Amino acid sequence: MNICLFKPEEIKQPLDLRDERGEHIVKILHKKEGDTFTAGIIGGQAGTAKITKIEGDYKAGGSLRFAFTPESDGKPLTNLKMIIGFPRPIQLKRLLRDIAGLGVCEVHLTGTELGEKSYMQSTLVEKGNAYKMLLDGTVQAGSTHVPELFLHKSLAECLDEVLGGGSPAADQPCSLILAALDNKSPSCSLRSVMEADGGHSYEARTVVAAIGSERGWTDRERELLTSRGFTLCSMGSRILRTETAATVAGSIILSEMGII
Questions:
Q1: What angle do CA 226, 120, 104 make, to 5 degrees?
Q2: Sign of torsion, CA 171 172 174 177?
Q3: What are the backbone dihedrals phi and psi of residue 123, each rounded to the nearest 5 degrees, phi first?
Q4: Which residues of the chain fall below pLDDT 50?
Q5: Per-residue pLDDT at 127
Q6: Nearest-10 crossing angle of helices 89-102, 242-256
Q7: Secondary structure E strands in 73-175
């Protein structure tokens, strides 16, 4: 836990020592009265919290009082949106944590033609459970800003949400980079897509990366993606798990954008 995050209404309230955050502060970090720890408001400022009083303990119960001093607006999310075909639930846990750690601004989970339909019914994809995974990744990164999560039944529905319904590819701004990973018929590498952007500054660019579910895209989905302006690209000849592909693709994109 590289930062303790609080909802706005929690930041001035005592922290229950049986709470995961309270237990971490006193049991793992061994903090005492007068000590400080890194804290932040979810979706807001980051700073330092000074412990003013500890009553009781994390086993029997008690509270930790602290004074929060904001110092920054927190690490901003990047201009990277990811469209991801629903993976297996166990993969989804790791995937959400990892891409939240990278600072992706939006995660769009979508059903695909070759994806297993039952994955979309998993309780993990309910907003509360999936949000916890995103929050865990945000904490790991020492950030306060959590990516937004969207769920879609189909790729067509997803693209309408992300790009705007019916907008032709030619109308998309030149600073919008659209890349879809594909092992079957890629036209170039993911890095080439990024390098061909024409030198726009990071602040002016938004990247949308689409990654299929376990069995990839169908020909119909490939046609849909290319008709909406996506370039089919690859990261090499090896076939990666969806969770691995998402993390690697995100790292390559953010490296090319000068973020990491």
A1: 60
A2: negative
A3: -65, -20
A4: 167-170
A5: 61
A6: 10
A7: 80-85, 106-110, 148-152
Q: Which helix (H) or strand (E) holds 206?
A: strand 206-211
The answer to whether 178 and 230 are in contact (CB under 8 A) is yes
Do residues 34 and 51 make contact, with C-beta atoms less than 8 angstroms apart? yes
Dump the DSSP string for 50-70.
EEEEEEEETTTEEEEEEEEEE
Which two three-digit tokens encode residue 70? 């904001």
Rounded Cα distance, 57 and 82, in Å = 42
Token pair for 114: 């070759």
Q: Which two structure tokens, joined as six digits, stand for 110?
A: 């979508």
Q: Give residue 65's pLDDT.
A: 96
pTM, rounded to two decimals: 0.90
250 and 102 in contact (C-beta within 8 Å)? yes
Tokens representing 175 are 């600073």
C-alpha closest to that of 156 among 101, 207, 214, 217: 217
